[in-house]
Amino acid sequence: MPRLLPTLFLVLVLTGCDSLGAEADMGESAPATSADSRSGPLTPTFDLRTQSEPNDYYLIFAGRGGGEVGHAFVVWVTYDRNRRFVSQEARGMHPDAQRAYWRLAVGVPGGLQDDARENRGLARRIVVRVNKHAYDRTLRVRGQWQRGTYRLVSRDCVSFVADVARASGLTAPARTASNSLPVDYLNALWAENRWRR
Prior knowledge:
The structure is a single chain. Helix content is about 30%, strand content about 25%. By secondary structure, it is an alpha+beta fold. Strands 1-6-2-3-4-5-7 form a 7-stranded mixed beta sheet, with helices on both faces.
């Protein structure tokens, strides 16, 4: 039963939401999620691997709209050489407690939280297949974000996603007024890296 919940979450993140496809709002079809011998267990939006490895390593950059601002987070997924699910972890940056927006702008205590239940209302998903060294780089970035000050625009969920994206090898766009919200930023991240397809 303990392995069932992460697997169920992963299935929901990958297939369970109406507009979850990585290119849904770009007018392209969503990537398939079934395994085949060429693409691995997940069909990536971007494949950044530089060499073949026995295990498969993926990062899923996900975002939901709704509420006043939405939320962005990252899911780390690993499959073994037999394409069996090994692990997944979802993390996003949050303030420790709900605060007035002006307090969030100046900074409050915060840190990474488990976002395994953040599968409802997802509006954007970007699946990135990476080599182990890039995967490990993103885990080091995650470690640097465990605790600290949560500050809107400079150290929030979008800033965390941008740092992980850079560590994975993606080009992370600068934040602007037009892409400061989570889903808008993920759309900009997709557009900035579209040439990699």
